[in-house]
Every structure is written in structure tokens, then in C-alpha cells.
Amino acid sequence: MIEFRHLRYFVAVAEELNFSRAAERLHISQSPLSRQIRELEEMLGFPLFARDRHHVELTAAGQVYLEKAREILTATEQARREAEQFHVGRKGSLSIGFVGSLTYRVAAILQTFRLHFPEVHIELRQMKSTEQMQALYDGKIDVGLVRGAVANPNLVCKGIAEEPLVAALPGSHPLAHKAAVSLGDLAPHPFILTPYRSGSGYYEIVTLCCKEAGFVPRVAVEAPEILTIVAFVAANMGVALIPLSFTHLHAEGVTYLPLESACTWNISLIANAHGPKQILIDHFLAHARGGINFNEDALT
Description:
single chain, Arc Repressor Mutant, subunit A, DNA binding, two-stranded antiparallel ribbon, transcription, DNA-binding, D-Maltodextrin-Binding Protein, domain 2, alpha/beta, WH_DNA-bd_sf, 11 strands, transcription regulation, seven-stranded mixed sheet
């Protein structure tokens, strides 16, 4: 059976037209090279070279075979390089699920990731945390971005960052002139929150922060998502705590203030414990961590 080495040896001899120089080029001795060429010719059933003690030249069949052998070697090398790019995670595809409250963070992460991995195709799917877990089981996504931590023995959950929450107040609010507020300052005022058990984790994190500050927030309005919450704050319907990344909206009639004591909402990556895209996921995780930079100074 003709093997890859036969083609390499043949091309070397055909290009050098000298067995000694070809052997040196291939880093083998001349005798094994001569045997390999004879073996190739025997398997083909016709001579590739016309040779005597002092001269080597290609036969007409050898010239045709050289062209095709070069094509095979080139195609094989191209295939190797292409496959290597996938193996090391330089190429491929990544389907990413994310919760809605991470929309602006995902954009920043992908901007950083694509600078280093421009040939990786990205597909984004917005879904709740529970939907992401099911999608990972079903193979519909490769990785998920969620708020908080996910405790599941079948999934890997790795922290990416802790995003600060800030106070969102109507511009006319009596606290709006302050440089920063405490959660205690907000306690007497009506809050705007997502519904209880909304599945986003937002309700839980806000109420937990308030509880740690010694009060239960008085919910005046329930809104389905953070963008709507900001709109209701602008309409002077209450105050809210929102992720720092949403403050870039600069909604008219809304003032954003940092909190005097830290209140954060974790961002995590979830994925299957073992999978064929592990290297690519590791690359994404590294750049996800490096692609998030929270700067509360932007509020002031």
C-alpha cells in the first residue's frame, strides 16, 4: 500500500534529481531512500525515474505523478494546519447563552474575545439560567453566562466577575444630589423590582442586599426586566438597584449613584464538565474575565 512517506520521498528525489542530495534533505541515508523509491515503483507497476550511475531524470509517467503527488502533499499539509487551528481553539464555533441582564457585559466580552479569535463563529441566545442549563444538557449551547452561581454536579460553574449594583433615582428625588447613598437611605422609599421568582435572580439579589442592610424593600411597582425598571424610575415611580453596566443608558430623568457599602451581583460561566470544545471554552473564559472592567468613577 502506498503511504504518505512514499510520496514525500518521491517528491524529494524528483526535485533534486539526485538520490544523495534527496537523502540529505530528508535526513535519511541513501540506501533506504532507494529502496523506498523501488518499492513505490513496484506498487505502481511502472518506473518513475530513468536512471543510471551518473544521471537521474523523471519518466513521462513520473512527471505526471510528481504533479499529483505535490497536490496531495499540499492538501494534506493544509488539512493538518486547518485541523490544528480547531484543535488549539483558534477556529470553530461557540454557541453562547446569556441572561438579559448581561446584555451589555456580553458585548464587552465578545469585543475582547474576537480581537484574539476572529475566526471563531459566535452564536448568541438570550435565555434564563434554567433554560441555559437545559440547553447545555441538550447540546443546544456550548456555554452559558448567568448571574450568581449554579450548583449542579453535571455542570462546571466558574466565576467571571462581581458587578457592582448602583442606586437608580428619579432626578427630582431628594437624595439625587448626593455623591453616594447607603441602602439605609433608600429604605423609606418605594422600590421597583422584578416579580418574585422571576427566574433572573435580580429579585433575590436586591432583597438580599436590603435584608443585610436591615430592611425589607417596599415594592411599589413590578417590572419584567431592568430596562423597564429604569423607565419606571424615570417616571418617578420609585427607586431601584441596577447593575453598573446599565448606567450607560443615561436615561433622561434618572440619576445613578454609587452605594456606600458594596452590593454586587456575580457573573458566572457555566458549561458541561467535559465536551469536545473544552479548549475553546477555556479561551472564552480567560477573555471573559479579562473583558470585564467595572468603573464606578464613570458615575461621578
